[in-house]
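Milestone M4 deliverable, item 7.
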Amino acid sequence: MKIRWKEHELIIVTTSCIMLLVVFLVRLVNLNAHEFEATYSNVFKESHVPFSLSRNVLLPGIGLSLLCYLCYLFFNLVITPWLWPKKNNVSSAIGGLWLKRPYILLLTLASLTLVIAVATCFAVYLKDEWLYSYPGFSIFFVGHNSQASINLAGIFTGVLLCTTAYFVYAVIREAVIAKIESRGDKSVFLILIFNQVTGFLNIYIIFIFGQLALGIPPAGPVMRLYIALLFSVALIFIEIYRFFPANQNHKILSRKVLGKLLLLTFLMAIPFTLIVGFGRPVPFLVLAWAFHFLVVTPLAWFFYRQQKDKILAIRGIEKALVKSNADLQFLRSQVNPHFLFNALNTIFATALRENAEATAESIQVLGDMMRFMLHENNKDIIPLQREIEYLQNFIALQKLRLPASEQIIIEVNLPDELPNLQIAPMLLVPFVENAFKHGISLNEKSWVKIRLTNGSGSMHFEVTNSMHAHTENDTEADKSGIGLANVRERLALIYPKKHTLTVNQANNEFSVQLTIDL
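Output delivered:
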């Protein structure tokens, strides 16, 4: 799934241009002879300047609009794909543009500004040619009658401001698209919301241009009410995709949910009132609040109930993708696990024949860990006791590779028995893996402290380790197992609002504290 922001924007611009063009031509055709002369030709006759419908009306009115539209298409269909190549990262959307191709950006900005500004000067001249019909007049130079000369500085400045503003908007647009799409399939839900929002804005802005084309005053009550309704629609989107899903475990008529709804609808009623207040802000604020709470909110609830299954299905897909990505990273770290199982069994038997009991025990522990990763890791949830057993095996193997030294302190406080609590597999291991990988040094005092406690349906896990400066030949400096970022994503999707993850780094110590309501 991809973001359709640029597609929706193209539809808005194209539809608006066609709409304005049609309204312009319809009004022109519907003018009678007297109205036409009063609007266009009388001033030419009075100045004894020849008048031409195509030259003095159609060309400046239609030609300039079409030129601006063609410049828009050229920038978005030709320049934009070249300036922002299709790479799903924000650095290519911003850094690559400003650092690698700034001269292209500036050249494009200057060229489009020059073309549109010159065309605007010619359009102004043709539209009011009667005003500039005197000897020695030049479009681009001030003649002897300075009061009738074209305001070149004003035109170029205005066009430059408009093109610069659009360029800044284009940079922000490409950066936002790159940021969202960089998450790949895990951003399906966000892309769905984004496309629905831009799709609505598509229709909303087209209607604004339609009202302006029909001559409805921009500051009139109709237009002000139409603009204010944007906040009502924004409230619908917030409630459908944020508020109701976040409170789906509570009754809609509960005191807690109603209190939040009253506050949310009141906040959205304030900008609504500022736009449409009609001189009586306080009474209108109460009416706007009641409208958003009694009309807009039930409407949003109705749409949410209609789309609830679809929303939950997409969220389920995101969770499955995050889990499958984590599983894939684990499996990639295993070279032909079935071959390794067979090899371990052979080594285990050899160790027993040679009476190397410690070696045989270590091999058995490693085999248990690999079996856990291949079988338990494919499940959505497992007993917390199984996760702890894996941790104990992992810690036992780590201790084997470390020499006995007073400088290395390893404290493990894991309960032997736990109540029947369930947890997503491989959530705790990355913290312990990182602690041993980055917290142990054979040359400095080092420590790893691991502690897990539980109570009343929750679990608290704490890992603390020492920190050491990496050497230049340290191959593990930039590696951290599956990484804390992956664990954060899994926690956010599997235990939303049911976990607390705190990471602290102070002096020479790094600590992680995780609490989950299981």
